[in-house]
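Re: that backbone. Tokens:
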């Protein structure tokens, strides 16, 4: 997707504070953090939202979830963290490239 900001970040065309990268995933700090630690885990493949994910993405989605605690630990979130996936306009999604928010390090709104 040529006009997708997270595709551009994944491809290194737009700078970000990257935490992790492999052939399938990238993780970087959110530009407008909602907690002392707030980063995003993003697949390199353009999947617009969780509604657009299919059975072939099963492994990818699993890898995203397993990466969350690994990076949270690296960033010192020993007390736990929150994961959020906003899906669609009704779910508050603003950037239509699937991403998992990981937040922690302070008092978080309870959902
Ligand atoms: P959504 O509401 O779509 O789940 O969240 C999108 C998130 O992406 C927001 O928390 C927003 O701050 C973050 N974001 C939007 N544009 C950029 C950007 O260019 N760089 C980074 N690092 N984060 C961004
Ligand atoms: Zn994209």
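Recovered sequence:
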């Amino acid at each position: 997707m040529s006009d997708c900001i997270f595709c551009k970040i994944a491809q290194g065309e737009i700078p970000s504070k990257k935490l992790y990268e492999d052939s399938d995933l990238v993780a970087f700090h959110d530009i407008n953090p909602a907690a002392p630690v707030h980063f995003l885990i993003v697949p390199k493949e353009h999947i617009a939202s969780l509604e657009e994910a299919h059975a072939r993405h099963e492994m990818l989605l699993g890898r995203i979830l397993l990466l969350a605690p690994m990076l949270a630990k690296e960033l010192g979130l020993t007390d736990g963290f929150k994961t959020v996936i906003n899906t669609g306009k009704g779910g508050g999604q603003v950037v239509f490239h699937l991403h998992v928010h990981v937040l922690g390090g302070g008092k978080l709104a309870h959902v």
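The CA atoms of residues 6 and 43 lie 9 Å apart. The mean pLDDT is 97.
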